[in-house]
Design goal:
Strand order of the largest sheet: 4-5-6-7-8-9-10-11
Number of strands: 18
Helix content: 25-40%
CATH superfamily of the largest domain: Glycosidases
CATH architecture of the largest domain: Alpha-Beta Barrel
Shape: globular
Structural class: alpha/beta
Number of helices: 10
Largest sheet: 8 strands, parallel, barrel
Strand content: 25-35%
């Protein structure tokens, strides 16, 4: 301490900041290969990513054993992550062709690269930074249309610019799993990225084989994963996708984590589960959300706690096993007469034997957005059709013709819920 006091004031302040916060130089993050198995090292310690996508309920990420967030570069978010002891995969703003970016325009690419490098320059020393992600699914154009291969040249240019500014944090780009032959193009055109981020849902199990097929030998991170997507499941005659029940989602998340994420291949460095938030309208308002809008926890929260730590929560959520309208079974196309009376039944279980309550809703089917629910309007619950709160209820179908969904929510009064829904058509 005596030596610090003798230093000039400015050096004393800098040294104090370095010793207490790390803001003078961020933490060094490395990727190493140990006898064919890739590892992420933070402060020379092995670091397997147990992360989430979303910026709400972050205290519960740490509480339940998570260690990282995927988010933007805003200082407030980074400071919050640091306070909670969480690292951040920082999303960097690269534009996609679907939003009007022209990857034949060298001036536009240069401006984008300069913007990315500027963000990195201003953010690199924040101790919450884990690594950088250049864009998200830059190749994807709705309808799976052909894209400009020069996007990968631009990604590599950005990667080189990032490394010239910050050699201490790995760099990736994030892709989806459509047209996976693009991996071969990335191998060829993006030699300067250190790893690959992959958003994967139903096809998560085949990733190691697919990456090997197209020549990817570096590590990867599952940057987004969750239930089977609405583009992957069975649909009604009117093209409404069947959302998984609470039980099906629980089993789905568990199987995917154990089979495809928990470093089984030697290439996977961890994952970011989707979606750690209370509301996202994408086909339905329940498809991806792991919390509800009031902050109640779905069974998936307790599941991630167990998968991340090996520990079971003191009290777990109920789980909806099935939902039926009349005698229709799952994957039957359900046609109802307008303004007529019907019955519905939900079957749910609770491992803690807690007393359960029930809430029911009917909503119009959403008009689907072309990409990731962006701009999709939230159908509101219709009033006066269900006036009961039991496991078996009667309801009146809407009078207007068209597609609808019946939703049920099962609550345990301990801060948990589970849900399911069924699409039906009023004729």
């Amino acid at each position: 301490m005596k030596e610090i006091i003798k230093l000039p004031l400015i050096k004393t302040v800098i040294l104090f900041l370095f010793l207490t916060t790390g803001y003078v130089r961020g933490q060094k993050v490395q990727i190493v290969n140990d006898i064919g198995k890739w590892q992420l090292l933070v402060k020379n310690q092995s670091y397997f990513i147990k992360g989430v996508v979303g910026q709400t309920f972050l205290g519960k990420v740490k509480q339940y054993g998570g260690n990282s967030i995927r988010m933007g570069s805003d200082k407030q978010g980074l400071d919050m992550a640091l306070k909670l002891g969480l690292s951040v995969l920082v999303n960097l703003p690269a534009d996609a062709e679907r939003y009007g970016m022209n990857y034949d325009d060298t001036a536009a690419i240069h401006r984008q690269t300069e913007k990315i490098a500027g963000i990195v320059r201003n953010t690199k020393n924040h101790p919450a930074v884990l690594m950088w992600a250049i864009g998200n699914e830059l190749d994807y154009i709705p309808g799976t249309l052909p894209y400009n291969l020069k996007v990968w040249d631009a990604v590599n240019e950005a990667a080189k610019a990032i490394k010239s500014v910050d050699p201490d944090h790995p760099v990736m780009t994030v892709i989806g799993t459509s047209m996976m032959e693009k991996v071969a193009d990335i191998v060829k055109r993006c030699p300067d990225i250190d790893l690959l981020g992959i958003n994967s849902y139903g096809d998560i199990y085949t990733l190691p084989e697919t990456l090997k097929k197209y020549g990817w030998t570096k590590p990867y991170i599952i940057t987004e994963w969750g239930p089977d997507g609405y583009w992957e499941v069975k649909k009604t005659l009117w093209k409404a996708p069947y959302e998984q029940t609470g039980r099906e989602k629980y089993n789905c998340y568990e199987q995917k984590y154990k089979a495809a994420i928990d470093n089984v291949s030697g290439q996977c460095l961890g994952s970011y589960v989707f979606y750690w938030s209370g509301f996202k309208q994408e086909t339905t308002h329940t498809w991806f959300c792991m919390f509800n809008i009031d902050g109640l926890e779905s069974p998936l929260i307790g599941l991630m706690h167990r998968l991340w730590t090996g520990e079971k929560s003191a009290n777990v959520a109920p789980i909806v096993d099935s939902l039926n309208i009349e005698k229709f079974v799952r994957y039957n196309d359900i046609f109802l007469n307008s303004g007529s009376k019907y019955s519905a039944r939900v079957t749910a279980s609770d491992a803690d034997k807690d007393s359960l309550t029930y809430k029911w809703e009917i909503r119009r089917e959403a008009v689907y957005a072309s990409y990731a629910g962006q701009g999709e309007k939230v159908p509101r619950p219709l009033s006066g059709l269900i006036n009961e709160e039991r496991s078996t209820v009667s309801f009146v179908s809407p009078t207007e013709k068209g597609p609808y969904r019946l939703f049920v929510y099962v609550l345990d009064s301990k801060g948990h819920f589970s849900t399911a829904n069924l699409p039906f058509m009023v004729k």
